[in-house]
User: Fold this.
Amino acid sequence: MDKLIKTISKDGHFRAYALEATETVSEAQKRHQTWASSTVALGRTLIAAQMLAANQKGDDTITVRVQSNGAITMMIAVADTHGNVKGYIKEPNVDYKRGSTGEVLVGDLVGQGWFSVVKDMGLKTPYTGQTPLISGEIGEDLAYYLTTSEQTPSAVGLNVLLNEDETVKVAGGFLVQVMPDAPEAEIAAFETRIQQMPAISKLLRSHDQSKAILDAIYGQDQYKILDTSPLAFRCDCSKARFAASIQGLGKTEINTLITENHGAEVICQFCQTAYHFSETDLKELLKHDH
Ligand SMILES: [Zn+2]
Assistant:
């Protein structure tokens, strides 16, 4: 099962999250029928949203939106604080381009654009932040967003590795953040260690990926596990929710659906679940017009 492990260094100056997200990305791949590069790009975006949600509390939700001029064009991932994430990719059929290590590269296919984050914390106006994409590889874009837009120096490593048949082999990553009271010398030492860490794609191949990631992050330093919680691709859509949006179309539009289409089918953009509304269902919606 996918999981999120939250840790803090013994001195409390750094915190690190390790995420195992293989099933999350695999589920997204199946639901959206994505091709290799789209699988990796969407998977990384889902993991980025899970990382940001790990910093939130209560019923907050995080929406990550990647908009760009490359072949991928647009991706959205929405995560909550209970480990659920859902996602959408506008171009699911972008094919791959592999680097010398066999990894699927996505930066060129994402291209230039924006990394936007919307935090809905139940207030009237959600918080929004936006930074330009610096590489389109998502992990670096997230680190840049956190460091510049949220002024929290952060290091991010995340990736999705595929099998020969292009199904998801392994997915996951880490987020390291410097706490406000960390002394400069310690930050410098930590940064050096992060830079010298093995590549995330290598760590993800380890038998116990979270332990390999955390050991590489902390080196000889001791750390404490604060919490371990499940992660999953899970959509919160329902027939009732789509019924409400159909009602929002108004009586004339619903009558047209009844007389011309004899029903309606709505597909959730985030999970591809199809909801069918029969003529009877639609007539029922007309009765409960509000
Ligand atoms: Zn859905």
